[in-house]
Design goal:
The chain is of the alpha+beta class. Helices cover 27% and strands 20% of the residues. The N terminus is likely disordered.
Amino acid sequence: MAIIPLLAAALTLIGQKGDPVSLAKFIDSLHWDAAKSGPMMVVDPEGVFADSDKPSLADYKRKIVKTGNLSAIVPTWSIALGDDDIPNAYDALDDSDKLTFLIATLRPGELKALFTEGLCARDVSGQQRAAILSMLPKNFSYHEGEMEGGHRSSSSLEAKTVPDDQRDRVRLQIHKLLAITYGPTSNGKNGTSTRQLSTLNYRGPKGTQIVRMENLMGFKGPKFPGRVVDNLEKKTDLSWRDPRLAKPINLIPNTTIGDAVDAIHNLSGLELYADYRIADRKLATFGATCTAGDLLHGIAWALSGTIRKVGPAYVLTANIEGKASREARLTAIDAEGQIAIRSNVVAWRQTATNLDVYRSMPLSADDSFGVGSEATSLMPPPDSKFMDGWIATSELPQSLQSAVASAVSDDKENDDRVAAARAKHPELNQARAQRESWNPIEGLSGKVKLSYTYGYRLVLPDGRPFEYHSFGINNPPRVTMNGPERKDPFPIDAKELNPGGGIAIKSDDARTVASMCAQLKQFGVQEVWIETSSPTAIKSAADSGLRVDLVIRPWRLLKGESCLDPDRNVLGQTGGKLAAIPGARFDPLSQRVSSIGDLISPSDPGLPAHWSRLANLAATKGVTRVVLMDTKYAGYRADSQARFSGGAIFGNGGRIEPGLPNIAPVLFEFGFATAQRLEFLRSHRIDPVDITLPQPSGGGPIDPYFDSPMFMTPFDNVYPGVTFPYPSGDSNRIQKAEEDWHAYLNDLFLKGFATLGQGLSQAVNSTTMEGFDVDIPGPMKGTLHPTAPFAADGKPDWKNAAATFQILSPLNVEDDQGHIDYHLVFAPFKGKPFCYDLTDISPDRVHAYLSFLFKPAL
């Protein structure tokens, strides 16, 4: 589309010097003649300002574009994430592991430079160069300032930027630094507290000139911020020239985007919605009419948005890809990078530890305290006890005495402020005083203790350093979570499974089932849990003389079954497609093995027929009981918050890293079937694939107008040179949408599950279901699953729990040589039904597992 050039002389406004001029006031000065120039529109003109005495449209970072006969004032910029903005595997590492990689792989001369004057990307190549560049901010801006005494500093508001051609000249340093511990206190109950001053938080005396990153208080912005780009048209699912949008629409001078989109819907007959995040924003128009398509096109461009198709409906939103979908995709890329590089990380940590870098690293030559190695003689012996090594402040070099005095003064100022605030609430202050009272430790008043700390920082090409960040090799001592070595209890007598317990197998082939059942009988197993889609396989199991329990995963499609609207995750992946991703089925942290497959959604029109097939299968002659597994997938829980994941733990003699299900749990949330997205869009005016909670230091790019940037100060803006529109509507609305979405899915589950129960109750005498909410203690609790009597409301009575089963799989109980580790297998609970689930074991390996578990039957 053509951009209309504006004559600067004609399009300026004289305002009072220093007063920001709104875009609305600027537009008033244009005296727009719609009869001559055609209709015009602009979004939120009262919320956009320019700091100029005589602003032009460019001062607002706005331009005019033509959509048909309509002139639309739109931003000149947008935020986009291109393929080049997606990080490599080294970006997925945290800074400590990147530094550990460098320490482990640099040559001696390069390592010496890293510990002293620093190393820049142009000094190295390959992966080392990539690692250093990945530690630089994507938009490398900074502020100049100076120290004001103690910990305080001031910075200019004007940001400066490191040019792209200078990025590889920015140096990285790791330094040994001096730390001063002071102010020791005790609560009289074996509790002690101290304060510490080091170069990590002290950058020199008052007047010291400094540079600091643009972010404040550790705010890093989105993990994948993208970049500022020209605001061009986006791909759309709805043609602006669709015949249904060709009708003229009356322009209302002052309305909202939501009302305008509703008017287009009423006129065109299209099922069209405005995302509620922008529905309340103001829309100003000039002129009488334009086509509905031109107006919708102009609004989308002004928002840097587009139109997405959801079933038969359309929604005006930020991108074709949902916000939550994009963040899940980026999280998956990040997770896959972590997993791919993980084996290398372990080796780097060990190499760096063997180098004993802490001992070999020299004290920084430009420590902010300015004492160099002068204080070395005042250091206490290594590993000294808390009460040892304290010295009088007067014994310190003068520069350290001044630094401590300034820090103590700052602390007193802060303590007085806190005390004044508490004085306004004496009842709370008194309760706190009764709970704990901290007093100086006798004999240590006025004394300090010196130690070393370690930090890394970046240094500008001109030699000015940024602030330090703490550094440590992430290689804790090897410990075990299994406790003392225990005796191998296997093989056991199969009778210990107790009535109601047994062995679970999986096959649709009658001969294979007959063979496995014969093997079970050889080891004295009396009950088989069989997962199958075949009545013939069930008959084969029953003919073996074993008690037969049918395993049903109710939402899984049976062999050969299909559905119109399969369930999907936020990326649009079916369960089968997700299961094909390496690492998707197993999480090392919980040892949980997931049985993921293609799922039918609760809203699928074929669900009653699917339930009928399951009921008919359960009615097969020989079935004694039905065991329902995987009854409720993540996403359908009313309290589901699977966005949050954990880190590594230590056990089995070493570090256990999280797998894909733990790093990227959002991938395993289902519920995004098209019909369910559509129903929620109709009721809540937002597509669920756009619902994601704000993440100040994670996630993808910020979408102008649609998102509420969490920039605490101008220093925190990770997009230099642009100002985001002020948030619209209720700031808690997106969190409410998240809650409503999971409540909606939970309600769908309960309704669907209740109808399943009606069919099964007529087919079998007793039914049990798997539960995910029961906490089983122990390091392997992710492999244990309780069952309880069926409850149509989805809330089983766990006090009357039936059998407990453990999933055994090559993924969670075998070592690299294929040997079963008895530490990872539970012995049956005394007097209670127990089942070993071997459905993940290939039929040809079942005998090996049975031989491990049980003694041969007599």
